[in-house]
Amino acid sequence: MRICNSAREVRLALAGAPRPIGFVPTMGALHAGHAELVRRCRAECASVVVSIFVNPLQFEDASDLDRYPRDLEADTERLRDLGVDLLFVPSVAGMYPEENPFTIDPGPIGEIYEGATRPGHFSGVATVVTKLFHICSPHRAYFGQKDAQQLALIRSLVRDLDFDLEVVAVPTVRDPSGLALSSRNVRLDADQRERALGLSAGLMRARQAWEEGERDPARLAELARTTGLDYDYCACVDPDRFGTPAPEGPALIVAAVRLPGVRLIDNVALERAP
Amino acid sequence: MRICNSAREVRLALAGAPRPIGFVPTMGALHAGHAELVRRCRAECASVVVSIFVNPLQFEDASDLDRYPRDLEADTERLRDLGVDLLFVPSVAGMYPEENPFTIDPGPIGEIYEGATRPGHFSGVATVVTKLFHICSPHRAYFGQKDAQQLALIRSLVRDLDFDLEVVAVPTVRDPSGLALSSRNVRLDADQRERALGLSAGLMRARQAWEEGERDPARLAELARTTGLDYDYCACVDPDRFGTPAPEGPALIVAAVRLPGVRLIDNVALERAP
Fold it and tell me: A102: Cβ–Cβ under 8 A, 6 or more apart, which residues?
C-alpha cells in the first residue's frame, strides 16, 4: 500500500494505475462500516484508493472537530489488511492553502435536517469531495447509506456538476444490538449506549409498520420516535431530495438524537412494494 | 468537425481522441478574439474542443441575456475553418435539468468589481466552467485576458478545487483604434463607438505613466479615467485577487463603462519592471 500526503504524489502514483479506480473517502477512525465500503470497492475496482482527512470545512463546531477520534496507525494497518492500493492522507494546509477558497453551494438540500442543525456542513462535505474527486480521479466512489443525506447530496453533486463517475451506496453496518456503526460511538458510555439503541429500534418499528401497510409519512415518523430520546429531527422523506415522499415509496426515515456529548444519526429505507 | 449537443455524446467522442485535449469555452457570437484563443489552442493541443453556450446562470439581467448576440451558423463555419475537432452546443435544459442545481461559490473575488455590479455573475461562470471541464476533460483551457477578473477567477477555481488542468491566458485582441474586441460591440452605433475609444485610450495613458515610473495605484487609476465616460469602476489591482497590488507590480488597471444600451469592460497589464 502506497501512502501519499500530497495531491501531486497521488496523481503521479495513479497515472499508470489499473482502471477502474475505486475511491473511498473517510475521516479515519475506521470501523467495520468503513471496512465494508473498502471491501466492496476492492471487489469491484482494479485500483483502490482511500483517503483519510478530517475536513475542518464540514465541522461547524470546533469542539466536535477537536474531539473527532483519530488513530492513523490503526487505520493504516486496517487498510493494508483490506488490500488498499493507495492511502491519501493530506494535511489541512495542503488541502486549504488559501484563506477564502472557492466552495460548493449545495442549495436547498444543504439547509434541511443535518444542514439545519449544522450550517455549512454540507457545503464543506461537497467541497472536500469535489477536491478529492479531482485529485483521485475515481471511476467509482463508495459512500455509506448510514449518512443518507450526505449520500443524496453526493449524488446531486455528481449529477448537477457533471462529474464522470458512479456513486455506489453501501448498506449501513450495525452491531448485533442494532446500533449503526459510527466513529462517534466511542464517545458513548455503557448507559448512553443503552439509550442510543432507542434510535435504531424506533426506525425498525416504523419499517415494520411500513411493511404492514402504513403509508402516512407523519404517522411513520411518529412511530419511529422512541420516548425519552432527545430528537433533533425524525422525518419520513424521499431519498433524493429529502422532500415529501411519493405515497408508494421509496422513502427514508431519517433521525438524529442528542445524548450528552454526542449526537447520533441513523435512517432506514422504506422500499417501494414489489 | 464533430458537433455534439449532449455531455454523453462529447464523452463518447473524446474517449479515443488524441491527447492533450485543449478547450475553449465561448458564448458564441465569435470574433477575432475568440479566433485567437482557438488558434493558440490548435497550435498547442492534439484535440481542440470548443463550446458555445449562452449560460443563463451568469446573466443577472434578463434583457442582457435576451439581447446577447447569437449566430450559430456563422460561428460553426468559423470554427470549422479554424480546424476545431469538436464543437459542443448544449441546450439550457441539457445543462440545467434541475431546478436548484449545486453551484460554485467563488467567495470574495466574486463580489467585487464585475461581481459588485453583476451579483451572481461569477458564481454562474464558475459553475458552468466546472460543468464544462467535467464534460470535456481538457488538459488545457484557454481564456482571454480581456475578461481579466474572469481569468483570475478561473485560475482560483482550478487551484482551490484541484482541477488537473492548465489555464492558458491569451492576450486581448484590439481593433486598429484600440477598442478591445467584444461580442457586445455590435450594439455600438458609430457615435458610441467613438466615445468607447476613451476606455482603451485611458488605459494606455495609465500604462504609459507606469512605464515612466508612476507607481501610485490611485494616481494610475485616476489617469486611466477619460473625461465624459460613465465609469462603473476604474481601479489598479493585483492580477490574482484584485486587491491592492504590490508597489513594484505586477498590476492590472481594470475598468467598466456604461454607454446607452451597452456596458463595456477592458483592462491593461502593468508588468513588473525587468
Answer: A127, B104, B105, B106, B107, B126, B156, B157, B160, B161
Tell me: pLDDT of B274 over 70: no
Find chain A residues with C-beta within 8 A of B104's C-beta.
102-105
Q: Which of B55, B156, B160 best probes binding to A when mutated, by most A CB atoms within 10 angstroms?
A: B160
CATH of domain A2-170: 3.40.50.620
pLDDT at A40 (0 to 100): 98
| Alpha-carbon span B273 to B271, nearest angstrom | 6
Q: Say if A2-170 and A183-267 have the same CATH topology.
A: no
Per-residue pLDDT tens over the stretch A2-35: 999 999 999 999 999 999 999 999 999 999 999 9
Share of chain A above pLDDT 90, in %: 93
Distance CA A240, CA B154 (A): 31
Q: Does B104 touch chain A (CB under 8 A)?
A: yes
pLDDT value at A151 more than 80 = yes
State whether B135 and A7 contact (CB < 8 Å): no
CATH code reported for the domain at A183-267: 3.30.1300.10
Residue-range domain boundaries for chain A: 2-170, 183-267
